[in-house]
Write a structure and sequence with these properties.
The protein has 294 residues and is mainly alpha-helical. It folds into 3 domains: 64 residues, no CATH class; 108 residues, Rossmann fold (3-Layer(aba) Sandwich), CATH 3.40.50; 118 residues, no CATH class.
């Protein structure tokens, strides 16, 4: 059985205004699992989902993945900008490149049946289409945890079936896809002049070492409960990695700005990325175990 990647513990679950809506709350979810939260109006469903997304505090034993996509029950005030431009802005904010942002936004608009409304202002959308737009922004960056609060609210049968398909699609997506991308990307980006095999091996090794380092750093950041503090810490860490000399990122930066050849030593740089990354993963796993068992 898969270990849970989402653990929410709350002795007192408080809404945004500090009102206690539930006590002794426990919610666990494993990778690929779809969990439905049911209950009457006012029972605290939305508050629980907000806590699962990291928008409200819970106990120290709570853990969640580093990337979370959240769709509220409904948006209070939607901006007066075209739907597609809004999605593109969110994608760029999430760190996606311009071409990838355009591709993902267009793909989601088509899959959720919103292609016809791409140029419409968000505030002019119907209730059902506005809800589809909120689901689209939650899916935009392929998050590790997807939290949808009444995602089919106000939708017709077509919207419900499309959102249900996206939920199944997200549940079937596994982290191994990222590892495969790290292996395949260097091989597909060579154009008409392929590299020698050993050079491909060196480049792939550096990609995987960087992926391990990123996974370790992301694992530690995921343990920070509040999203604001997590963002500030991530920015500070990356500034240190890019500015300070002789950090694990320095060898990769040097190799990315200089031609890599068969004579370029990669064992040392790969070790500088892989070993600290492995250590960070181990530390994060230990701390997460301590939190869950506390």
């Amino acid at each position: 059985m898969n270990e849970p990647v989402l653990v929410v513990r709350a002795r007192k679950l408080r809404a945004a205004r500090g009102v206690v809506v539930a006590r002794d709350v426990t919610l666990d979810a494993a990778p690929g699992e779809v969990v439905a939260v049911e209950g009457p109006n006012g029972s605290g469903k939305s508050t629980l989902l907000a806590a699962a997304a990291g928008l409200l505090p819970a106990d120290n034993a709570s853990v969640r993945p580093g990337s979370v996509g959240y769709s509220p029950e409904r948006a209070g005030v939607l901006p007066r900008i075209p739907l597609q431009r809004w999605l593109l802005g969110l994608a760029r904010t999430a760190g996606l490149g311009r071409d990838e942002s355009v591709r993902r936004a267009g793909d989601l608009l088509a899959r959720l049946g919103l292609a016809h409304a791409a140029a419409m202002s968000l505030h002019a959308l119907s209730r059902g289409n506005a809800q589809r737009a909120l689901v689209a922004q939650a899916l935009l960056a392929d998050p590790d945890l997807l939290v949808l609060d009444e995602p089919a609210g106000g939708m017709d049968a077509d919207g419900v079936s499309r959102v249900a398909f996206e939920i199944r699609r997200a549940a079937g997506r596994r982290a191994v896809v990222l590892a495969l991308a790290a292996l395949v990307a260097p091989l597909l980006s060579q154009g008409s002049h392929p590299h020698p095999l050993m050079l491909d091996v060196r480049i792939v090794g550096l990609h995987l070492a960087a992926a391990v380092f990123g996974a370790g750093l992301g694992s530690l950041l995921a343990l920070i409960e509040r999203a604001g503090w997590r963002l500030l810490t991530a920015v500070a860490v990356f500034l240190v990695l890019f500015v300070v000399r002789n950090t694990p990122m320095a060898p990769l930066l040097k190799l990315s700005t200089h031609p890599t050849t068969l004579q370029t030593p990669v064992g040392g740089p790969a070790a500088w990325l892989f070993l600290p990354g492995l250590a960070l993963v181990a530390v994060a796993a230990f701390l997460a175990t301590r939190r869950v068992s506390a």
